[in-house]
Design goal:
The complex is a heterodimer of chains A (about 240) and B (about 80). Chain A is built from 5 helices and 11 strands. Chain A has about 240 residues and is α/β, with parallel strands linked by helices. In chain A, the strands form 2 sheets. Chain A has a 9-stranded mixed β-sheet, with helices on both faces. In chain A, helix 1 packs across helix 5. The longest helix of chain A is centred in the N-terminal third of the chain and has 12 residues. The radius of gyration of chain A is 16 Å and the shape is globular. Chain B is an alpha+beta fold and about 80 residues long. The longest helix of chain B has 16 residues. A 3-stranded antiparallel β-sheet of chain B has the order 2-1-3, with helices on one face. In chain B, about 20% of the residues are buried. The radius of gyration of chain B is 15 Å and the shape is elongated. Classes of the chains: A alpha/beta (about 240), B alpha+beta (about 80). Chains A and B meet through loops of A and helix 1 of B.
Chain lengths: ~240, ~80
């Protein structure tokens, strides 16, 4: 992308997505993106610099969260885009879809406390080797909202070893000071994982909602740092 | 022909629903309630020439969609 051009962002809309408008608005407001929704039944993503799989309850969360969305026609295009190194961000239900599709490791189970949790949490940046954290600092603490019933990330022992070895844990739940503490993890996820990336590092998923915390006017702009990191990386030719 | 696929959380995987149900059963006075796994049952009508083919189809359905092998395991059977 040349300097001055607007990043093109495609936001996939599944039946039951409900954070798609927020995602479009957030990237328009934070990075001046040329953002557009892409209905799941199509196979044309346009020519995006970034694909976002937004939050919501795709297919009513029937069967398992994200299990049916994974078979939507658009997912073939998302898979191709990701395979070519295109940046993909899955937020909440989008994270669940990416895990079900095998584009991210692990799976998301019912919260250990069996309750839907809707509140602000703190997450710690665990790696800056992704398009969305490249301009952050390892150890940075972000306050972000969550709203999920199935955010309990799990992986088999071998997968978890692999994820750890390859620095694929992007965010962990923590307290306000950045320490992993009892009560800081809202859903019981393995090793306090809040977000992961794939081995190639271009696909990132997280349970918290950066798009809901992207404007100072709304009280919290921590989430905007992820979008800015991506956009600046694009300008510098670091990503995309 | 009708097949049945039963999907439950794998042993070793935390099952919050199963845990809550185990607690409730114990409170109701059922003695010696151990681990409970809460899962799903799918009964599917299929066209197959015999039970072996029906069972194989059920297995494929489980592998491709009904069961997530990261967290779940399944059993496929033919109901007839």
């Amino acid at each position: 992308m040349s300097a001055g051009a607007r990043p093109r962002v495609s936001v996939v809309v599944f039946p039951g997505s409900n954070c798609d408008h927020d995602a479009v608005h957030a990237v328009e407001a934070t990075i001046g993106a040329d953002a557009r929704p892409v209905w799941h039944a199509g196979t044309d993503l346009g020519r995006p610099d970034l694909v976002i799989l937004p939050g919501g309850f795709s297919y009513g969360d029937y069967l398992r969260c994200g299990a049916l969305a994974r078979f939507s026609p658009v997912m073939e295009a998302v898979r191709d885009f990701a395979a070519k190194g295109g940046p993909v961000l899955g937020i909440c239900n989008g994270f669940q879809v990416l895990c079900e599709a095998g584009l991210l490791p692990g799976a998301l189970l019912l919260n250990s406390g069996q309750r839907f949790r809707c509140e602000d949490v703190f997450v710690r940046v665990e790696t800056i080797r992704t398009p969305f954290t490249a301009e952050l600092t390892k150890g940075d603490v972000l306050r972000l909202p969550i709203a999920h019933g199935d955010g309990n990330w799990r992986a088999e022992a071998a997968t978890f070893d692999d994820v750890t070895t390859h620095d694929q844990i992007v965010f962990r739940y923590c307290d306000a000071a950045g320490s992993r503490a009892t009560g800081a993890n809202p859903n019981g996820s393995l090793d306090d994982v809040a977000g992961v990336c794939n081995r190639e590092r271009n696909v990132v998923g997280l349970m918290p909602h950066p798009e809901r915390a992207s404007e100072a006017m709304l009280g919290n702009a921590d989430g905007a740092r992820l979008f800015r990191s991506f956009a600046n990386g694009l300008l510098l030719g670091r990503t995309g | 022909m009708k097949v049945q696929v039963t999907v439950v959380p794998k042993s070793g995987v935390l099952d919050p629903q199963g845990k809550a149900i185990a607690g409730a059963l114990a409170r109701l006075g059922f003695p010696g309630v151990g681990d409970v796994r809460a899962g799903k049952v799918f009964r599917v009508e299929v066209e197959a020439k015999d039970a072996a083919e029906a069972k194989a189809l059920a297995g494929q359905m489980a592998e491709k969609l009904l069961c997530n092998p990261v967290i779940e395991e399944y059993e496929a059977e033919v109901l007839g």
